[in-house]
Write a structure and sequence with these properties.
three-stranded parallel β-sheet, about 30% helix, about 110 residues, alpha/beta
Length: about 110
C-alpha cells in the first residue's frame, strides 16, 4: 500500500473475533503470520489504529518498511512512534531496538 495507505476499520476485517480482542491485551506477545497477500499488514495496521484510538499510552512499532502511517489519525488518544529499520543504516534492527527503549513505551508492536 505504501506509506500513508488506506486501511480497514478493525470491525470490517474478516478475522476471528478473538483476534480482534488483541486490542485489549495489556501484557504478553502475539505473532501475526500468514502467506503473502493474506492481509497481515492490513490487519496489523487496523489493530494498531484501534489500539491508538482506545487507549492512552505510548506505542512504538519497529517495521521494515512502514506500510501504513498510524501517527496522524485525528481520533487517536495514544502517542504512536513508528520506527523504520532502514532509518538506522547498518545498525538496522539493533538500532531500532535501542531507539525503542529510549521512548519508554507502554506497548511495542
Amino acid at each position: 500500500m505504501g506509506r500513508g495507505g488506506q486501511f480497514a476499520d478493525i470491525g470490517n476485517l474478516k478475522i476471528h473475533p478473538r483476534a480482534k480482542s488483541i486490542v485489549d491485551i495489556h501484557k504478553g506477545m502475539f505473532l501475526l503470520v500468514g502467506s503473502i497477500g493474506t492481509g497481515k499488514s492490513t490487519s496489523y495496521a487496523s489493530i494498531l489504529r484501534e489500539r491508538s484510538r482506545t487507549t492512552s499510552e505510548t506505542i512504538v512499532t519497529v517495521e521494515d518498511p512502514i506500510e501504513y502511517d498510524i501517527t496522524s489519525p485525528k481520533d487517536k488518544q495514544s502517542r504512536v512512534i513508528q520506527l523504520d529499520i532502514s532509518d538506522f543504516g547498518t545498525d538496522g534492527f539493533r538500532g531500532a531496538i535501542h531507539s525503542l527503549v529510549r521512548q519508554n513505551p507502554d506497548t511495542v508492536m
